[in-house]
Design brief:
The chain contains five helices and 14 strands. By secondary structure, the chain is mainly beta. The protein has one domain: Immunoglobulin-like (Sandwich). The strands form three sheets. The chain has a seven-stranded mixed beta sheet. It has a four-stranded antiparallel beta sheet with strand order 4-3-6-7, with no helix packed on it. Strand 1 and strand 2 form a beta hairpin. The radius of gyration is 20 Å and the shape is globular. The two termini are 22 Å apart.
Length: 266
């Protein structure tokens, strides 16, 4: 691939997205905790983001004050000090039927929600008092459904369930569509050599289709296999982004006529 093509795809892939976290968050620049459900693969994870200036040690505590996370820099990194930190938990499958190995952990949705209760999660720096907090809810968006790509447009609709995660707590319901603030839409080549070059955008919840930039598609070889991901994002009371549920779809390719994809691969 020529240098100009690589440069173009790289710019599209690294476009700056809107801030997703509470800003400000007490004395922190921002903070966020959320639940992410992959409805297609059937797994659930806990994500954390916070940003504070010049710290050497950071702690996260749960709603009851129980310590959940403690990170400490050392040596020359402690001299430099840290700012932003983002991490994701492991993402165990949510149903026994999805277990691929006997030793693989299974954590159902009721078990996961009990493990990470709704409430305020607090952040402390350098062993001091809490400097910021943010809310975790159990309001989970439904998985986007009917995710499609027609050669130009990515489209979807708001769904009704959590895909592969079918075991729910008693009385649990997915969030109504009006609780959704945004969708995150991503496309990337389903090809190891090109997979790092993706297109990603966040759009308001009223949007249910996105026109993929022609420049991005032209930068990829014709017929490149493509996969698409669409995530519904909960809107918190303060206007920040909350929990997310993603759906994935593949079998697409970089051709205007998607009926030609299979024959092109052959």
């Amino acid at each position: 691939m020529c240098k100009s093509v690589v440069s173009l795809i790289g710019v599209l892939a690294s476009s700056t997205l809107p801030a997703l976290a509470d800003e400000p968050c007490g004395d922190l620049g921002e903070c966020r905790v959320l639940i992410e459900v992959n409805a297609t693969d059937g797994d659930i994870g806990f994500h954390v983001l916070f940003d504070g200036e010049g710290w050497e040690e950071a702690q996260l505590s749960g709603p009851g004050g129980q310590p959940l996370f403690d990170a400490e820099a050392s040596s020359m990194l402690a001299d430099q000090t840290l700012t932003e930190n983002f991490f994701e938990s492991a993402e165990p499958v949510c149903e026994e039927a999805l277990r691929e190995e006997p030793e693989e952990e299974v954590v159902t949705l009721p078990e996961f929600l009990a493990r990470f209760p709704a409430g305020n999660y607090g952040f402390s720096l350098d062993g001091g008092e809490q400097v910021g907090s943010t809310m975790l809810t159990h309001t989970l968006p439904a998985a986007p459904a009917d995710v499609e790509f027609d050669g130009k447009w990515i489209s979807w609709r708001y769904g009704e369930d959590l895909g592969e995660c079918t075991t729910w707590p008693e009385g649990f319901m997915v969030a109504p569509e009006e609780a959704i603030l945004a969708y995150e839409v991503a496309m990337e080549p389903d090809d190891d050599a090109l997979s790092k070059f993706g297109y990603r955008v966040v759009v308001p919840a009223s949007v249910h289709q996105v026109l993929v930039p022609r420049a991005y598609l032209k930068a990829l070889p014709a017929g490149t296999p493509l996969k698409v991901e669409v995530g519904a994002i909960e809107g918190r009371d303060d206007g920040s982004f909350g929990n997310q549920t993603f759906s994935e779809a593949d079998g697409f390719c970089n051709l205007r006529n998607q009926m030609q994809c299979e024959s092109e691969e052959e």
